[in-house]
Queue: 4 jobs
Job 1
Amino acid sequence: MHENICGRSHSTAFNKSRKTVTALLLDLGNTALKWATSNKPEEPHAYVHCGNDVVPDELLHKWLNLKPERVVGCMVSSEKFAFNITRFFNAHGIKWDWLHSERVFQGRDFSVVNKYDNYEQLGSDRWHAVIGAASLYPNRPILVVHIGTATTADVVIPEDDKTQAFIGGRILPGPSMMTEALLTKTRCRPGRIGVRSDFPTNTADAITTAVLEAHLGIVDRSLTSLRKMGFDDPCLLFAGGAAPLFAPYIMQEYPQAVIKHNLVLRGLAMRATNR
């Protein structure tokens, strides 16, 4: 979890010891950097950069004190931020690798096949989230919904006892992007954040309700598509910076849903241990 303040960092758990870790894992998104170590991917930390290119010295030294053998990460944007990170690791002789999507992930106990038409076009964060989800729920159909700057709904299905397949997904603007489009491209000026209503009677509630239900809509359509394939009880995972805001509505609509924020880091850990 992270503070919703630009330029501030927070961690759910910080190991102050100086034990050597195998790899430092970095998930660099549009507004936040999440990180963990390969031996503790379930204990993520986060720094909200909000597009700022400067990497805080405090964060760099915290990483250095972990004495990682190498750095493994994925990046969807913030190239200058990533460049500053890699320059720091180069200066300290630490190997690094920004990973990309691949046609097949071959793990020790399972594999994931990437069915995207052009597998290299699939966002690295989406691919590693799929690997992380597949490692948690082997031989199960899975719908992974990430609600952030953009929102994605990605589907994984079992092919055999040890092989799962990413068969595709949906993308739409995230809640902030949807709202910003209305505020900048129209004359809508709600003046406040609305609440969900079955029949909104003011602009603020109308926008909030529509944004929420648009997101629930891609979940419904994805689940319907899975049911048509014979998968009636898929695992439903939610992640992303906006997922906690949606949590009450998510759990109301889908009681079986699990909010799991470290799927990308878990996927990176899977690949790091295979290298």
Note: The radius of gyration is 19 Å.
Job 2
Amino acid sequence: MHNRRTRPRHSPTCARMSFEFFHAVDTGRARTNNEDSVAVDEANWLAVLADGMGGYNAGEVASGMATAFIKSELGRWLHEAAGRANDNEVRRAMDICVDNANRAIFNAANANPQYAGMGTTLVVAVFRPGQVRLGHIGDSRAYRWRGGQLVQLTRDHSLLQEQIDAGLITPEQAAYSANKNLVTRAVGVEDTVLLETHLHDVHPGDVLLMCSDGLSDMLDDSAMARLLQANESLQGAAKALIDAANEAGGKDNIALVLVRAVGSPATSKPWWRFGR
């Protein structure tokens, strides 16, 4: 398991709320290569996670390109904005960076026959005191752990989710479906892709969990909640989650990011001002 923990980092314009990051990637028990990728820019409160797909090492290439590109481009934009951008501008910057990453992966796949058809899922989060702007593509997920409750914040872009939404199968039946890993949206597969984004509130003590399906397919929500409840430290929680996923079969690569909100936003100035 490859992992890294970072200390809470404070925004230059906020002295009250900060964020603690921990991320880890594990190959799992069924695969020899790793197609999951994670990138964290703690100075700009940015986290990116991707789960690649494609033959040979194409999935690894796609996920690595996505996380590196978005961390570099969006991280640079956030640094240069230096607290002056409003949320609409941040959302627009996320859209542009993801669109550029999508085109780069799509062009690389078309230029190299061994990478034909490669693509990747994506979860990207930009934090500020009291809020997180969350975007996703595909079936990698984000959850919020708050007050002993685990809530899924993203909705899978997958055939399975569409079948559930249409009432064709139940969530319980979905756990055993053969269509489990068929995504309806991915980065790099077509020349354009739509990033779904939402703004969520953040309370002191909240933990955001971003993960690939190597975790969420192996553990149901109640199992993940029990492990988060039992492990106070982010590092301990990450190890427990990955160990449990491997014990359940470890059928895929496992990637996760854990982010905890520290302090209080009550008397903080916003990290970026909202336009009125």
Note: The chain has a mean pLDDT of 89.
Job 3
Amino acid sequence: MSRFNASGILRKRQFRYLTGVTPDIFQEMVSRLRPLWEKVCRNKNRSGRPYGVGGLDDHLLVLLVLYRCHITQDFLGLLYGVDKATICRSLRRIEPLARCVLGVKRAIKVTEEEARALLIDATEQRIERPKRCQKRYYSGKKKCHCIKNEIITTEAGRIVCVSKSVPGTVHDLNLRRQGQPLPENARAYADSGYQGYQNDHPELDIPYKSSKKHPLTKDEEEYNRGLSSFRVRVEHAIRRIKTFRILADRFRYPRPSHTTKFAIAAGIANIIAGF
């Protein structure tokens, strides 16, 4: 029997500190995952070894603790009384289900009201220095090797789209053009990194840029301040995602897995915020 499980964390504050969610939200996530989990288990019963860390509750707990605390799989295995390979298999089982059920998708699905204001921003995360293609991942802006994601939210803060993870050298504008196009009737707000995307989507508001010959007028400065204040909502959404330390600290897992982990964390952030 596992020495560490969801029912064993009795204090609500302790549970939230370790997982990033309250017990009520945890049970809601379990309920959402249960139908797909049972379907997978029915197929699993035909062959293969039994699950080593318990049922759905424990698999989800493994994922949340790993994402929230960013501890090693060896240490998490110690808590469960299993080896690292068992924890790794647990993650390989639960992550695809969590991405399918809980994760934010790449397709942009919004109501007409939500389309009146979509907020766009990009965020980077440090990675270990790659053995190959180092220049591809080195960001001159951040002065480190990193990967980048784009996030789109509504005015209320609901995360409606996250991009795949790309090397840190990819410009914000190119990242936007590689992703899903915005709805035709959508009004979007972004920072100066998206200069030029107006050609693709005319309904885009970005800050005015100044130059030595053409400094900003007072009206333009006031507009920029207002836009920055309005766009803070998308920055708050990024902060909610990065409360999961696996996406805030230096990323130490294989880079191809980052897209899945980012989408899952964004989906959990939506659930926590009540969306």
Note: The longest helix spans residues 218-241.
Job 4
Amino acid sequence: MGKKSIISGRVPVVYTPATPGDPAVGWRSEDFNELIYSQGYDAYIDRALRCPCVDRTSGQPLSTCRNCLGRGWFFVDRKETRVVSQGMNNKKQFQNWSEVNRGIARITARGVDKMGFMDRIILMDLTAYYSEILRPMMFENQLIAYPIYEPMQISDIFLFVGDATKLEPIPSELYQIDGNKMIFDTSLNEFAPVESINDIYPKLSISIRYSYRPVYHVLEANRELMRVRERTCSFTDEELRDMPLNLLCRKAHYIFDAQKFGESMFDNTVYPTPEE
């Protein structure tokens, strides 16, 4: 009986006959997977999905959605695995400096990890450093700001007081870190310049440099169509095996802006029900 086409449902009328020849040397996917696992970095992988809050007319997500924080994507089903990563530089000689290729990396993952567009990769064995400007706001009686990444350790943090005044270092007892949220002591509001008599709260501006775990998003999954046939001595006994994926990725701060305000994102992962 013929096999149905997965595209149109039509039954093929011609089949190419098998033409077994002499034994040939092939690739063993297990060898590649073992190399990645033995030499790779510990990593978390989060599967990306488009958020259904996206407007069907404009294509824009809801800015108030706590499933995606207004970014249009949410992430579920965290997996712990290992990957191999390397930086990539596409700049040509005499090319003007730009941000086109900044933050790009090549990451190799095992085929079993099933990576796709916008999936998130967190490299747990590596440490990177980032500097940004935070603009804390009052929310539910707390002075909070959201760095793009989750700070591991803050090396430098300064408060802007005025253009004719030295920056004010902020001592560690005046802030605390809660994931990717920083909570500041409200006494810092006294140092903020008042730009308008109509301002309910002064506008703070804080420079910060911190260490974090590198976070990347998949832009393209190369070799996702590459599989190898692994056979035994019998030609008819064969199995298609996934080869490792070569992923073109970019750092998270080139993909998404930091959370501006509000509450934390919902975790939409469906966890297995514990057996009673």
Note: The two ends are 46 Å apart (CA to CA).
